[in-house]
């Protein structure tokens, strides 16, 4: 029952290809029907030979023998063709269902909120998207096909065998109750062991992924040998768990042959007696023996089916664990689908925010940002600056009624519209392992080189791009590691600019560029962002002093607010930061 429940998630994929699957099952019936005809032909042939030995007036000609041989050969050939078509059909369908399941899995990962990934390992998700999905495909193709094949063949063969000799058939079936108990026990333990195998595989994948991403740190601390040793331990654990599964299978697999073999010996003895007693003909006995030998194939299949099904259902449980996760942030029932764009005015009303650990990050924030103005946010590390701006595009979720854009609660604005109108540059920008051109144009459907170059110019990156041997076609390493930190930040800035956002959020986006480059970028941004809203987070007063409005955050609360000159006159935290930075600049010049 647990196996069936695990596979219920595949129902919609099966329904999509129901006619192809039905066609495959029809082919299963035909191939097994043809396979079961051969012993009947052999029975007829043996009976004719026996009659010829007993009656001198009856002869079996060479042409008759060739006829039987050709008939058996023709049935085998036609059955082989049907089996080829059957396998090709079901394997093709399984690949298509795997494609759709993987696509849906990836789509679901995209829908999950950012907070979900805080405690999930990338290597584990990669294992589920590859190894686990492959195990599910094996269920959809080989396991289901073999199960249908074995069930149909066993059922049809049983009917024919009962017709030949009921007693012999019942004797032949004696091992099967024992086999059923073995299968139940085997399936239960295999499922648990496969789950443990996949967990070990996920841990190993995570180790590889993290080690390759952090290879520079590993080399910097000369810990290659330690990392190799740790990987060996994880690798050995994976092998050990596989060995436990293999030992279990190796113990029970011989029983699938041994128990029917014992029944076969008894059938051979009893069948011989029935022939001597003329209860059945020699042809009947040979046909019955042929069917009994053929039942070995379903028994071998049975072991493979149990093994594959338990592995697949264990993997399906792991996939379902992800698919059953609900995104925390989504378009709710009150979304106003008629909203097609935003202007950019922002208001925070009595906003408080905490992360899942319950620690308050923002406390009673009340703030209005007029459309087309620039707001700067200053504060120490951990004061809540990044948390505040992450709430605007709903990367994190604020309570309803606390954030408004153009007077509309952001939870009533479709997510696609909200985020399409916000350009966001984070402290640690992420670039894809792709061409620089594609990284800059990431948010645009059909970009042209002029737009890309204009955005790169605004980010003061174009002159450096033109110095690259391949220009915009420069292929970046993982996370953009092949270019400098400042170039990565400016590439991310160009990516945000090119979409022409109504709201531009720069979360310490100039940390890796010098003050001269920063001034150049800010002057160009001032021209681009006219009529648009800009939010600047920076530790440098030189970055924020030209903003229309500046707030100072401390311990999650706004403690100071005003323009640059006003804040200096107050002589508070902002003025202290300013004086400290002036002193640092003087010392550097000295």
List the helices and strands and how they pair.
Elements: H1 2-7, H2 11-16, H3 18-54, H4 62-111, H5 122-164, H6 166-172, H7 175-213, H8 215-220, H9 224-276, H10 282-294, H11 296-323, E1 346-354, E2 360-369, E3 374-379, H12 385-390, E4 403-405, E5 408-409, H13 415-420, E6 422-425, H14 436-440, H15 449-458, H16 462-465, H17 485-497, E7 503-507, H18 515-528, E8 533-537, H19 541-544, E9 549-554, E10 557-562, H20 564-570, H21 573-589
Parallel strand pairs: 3-8, 3-9, 6-7, 7-8
Antiparallel strand pairs: 1-2, 1-4, 4-5, 9-10
Helix pairs in contact: 3-4, 3-5, 3-10, 4-5, 5-6, 5-7, 5-11, 6-9, 7-9, 7-11, 9-10, 9-11, 15-17
Strand numbers in spatial order across the main sheet: 6-7-8-3-9-10
SS strand fraction: 5-15%
Gyration radius over CA:
36 Å
Structure annotation, total helices: 21
Q: Give the number of DSSP strands.
A: 10
* Helix/strand/pairing category: alpha/beta
Span from first to last CA?
78 Å
Question: What portion of residues is helical?
Answer: 55-70%
Q: What is the mean pLDDT?
A: 85
The major β-sheet equals: 6 strands, mixed
Shape: elongated
Low-pLDDT parts are: none
